[in-house]
Specification:
Layout lengths: L4 H20 L7 E6 L6 H18 L2 E5 L7 H4 L4 E5 L8 H12 L4 E5 L15 H6 L5 E3 L5 E7 L13 E7 L3 E2 L8 E12 L10 E5 L7 E4 L11 H14 L16
Parallel strand pairs: 1-2, 1-3, 3-4, 4-11
Antiparallel strand pairs: 5-8, 6-7, 6-9, 9-10, 10-11
């Protein structure tokens, strides 16, 4: 070996070694998400498909996800670890007392974001549990009234296309199978509605209608970024590009982060 090369190697090899060691260290995730979902029951297929989709999204965008199937371990110390809490088809009753207190503090203090899906609006007295009044007011002062047990197709109309959650979502899109809950009243006076279902497009038609029927909304009266998305019964929803775009946008917006693909918009203050 030519002697002139040796000094160069003596400087380069340690540097390469340091770089290799650094690249071998596990990288910290950009942020952490906690997902609460039901184990078993008729929403199980949706939850399992959602987990696969969320895990792929997390791998692509370098964030971490942990899952819970009940609220036994949910407390303030646990929630402080997460930028986002997702209530994935988990009802707002039967929670432990410490979980109730921790969640209310998390939202009221703006400690992180929240997304609720479908079963999260099953507000009322169920399975011997009283209604969680705070949660009812958080979702727009509503209680559950009825649902389309035989399912119906319908068209969702975007009402606020300027909101970050709706970036890239078509002005209207079809949902092929859903239960379409109704409530005692529209939450509209107490929330910011981003999308509603056009009940005239139900196939088959149904007598269970509200007139004004929001299905995606946020409550700007609390410090935490929050979003409720009603659609969340059928696993086939994750084959619907409009739906997955909505959910992806919601996740990054509620977590206060941005995503790094051409289909993801930078998070804006809204």
């Amino acid at each position: 070996m030519h002697p002139a090369v040796c000094p160069l190697l003596s400087l380069t090899l340690p540097a390469l070694g340091a770089a290799a060691i650094a690249s071998a260290r596990p990288m910290e995730p950009r942020f952490r998400v906690l997902v609460l979902h039901e184990e078993g029951g008729h929403h199980s297929a949706y939850s399992q498909r959602a987990r696969l989709w969320l895990d792929q999204l997390a791998a692509t965008h370098d964030f971490a996800i942990d899952y819970l199937q009940n609220t036994d371990s949910l407390d303030a110390a646990l929630l402080r670890r997460y930028a986002l809490f997702i209530q994935l088809d988990y009802p707002p009753y039967g929670w432990s007392a410490q979980a109730v207190a921790a969640f209310e503090e998390y939202i009221e203090q703006g400690r992180g974001g929240w997304i609720g899906f479908h079963h999260a609006s099953l507000l009322g007295e169920f399975d011997g549990y009283p209604m969680w009044q705070w949660f009812s007011e958080f979702l727009g002062d509503i209680t559950y009234a009825n649902y389309i047990a035989t399912f119906a197709q319908a068209t969702v109309q975007v009402e606020d296309s300027g909101h970050p959650v709706m970036q890239g979502v078509p002005a209207s899109f079809r949902i092929e199978k859903e239960e379409w809950y109704t409530y005692n009243r529209s939450p509209r006076p107490n929330v910011q509605v981003l999308a509603s279902v056009d009940e005239a497009t139900y196939e088959p038609d149904s007598p269970f209608k509200m007139g004004d029927h929001p299905v995606v909304w946020t409550n700007p009266r609390v410090p935490a970024r929050n979003l409720y998305i009603f659609m969340g019964h059928a696993p086939e929803l994750f084959d619907n590009e409009a739906y997955t775009t909505l959910v992806r946008n919601a996740l990054f917006w509620a977590a206060g982060r941005s995503c790094f693909t051409s289909l993801c918009s930078e998070i804006m203050n809204s």
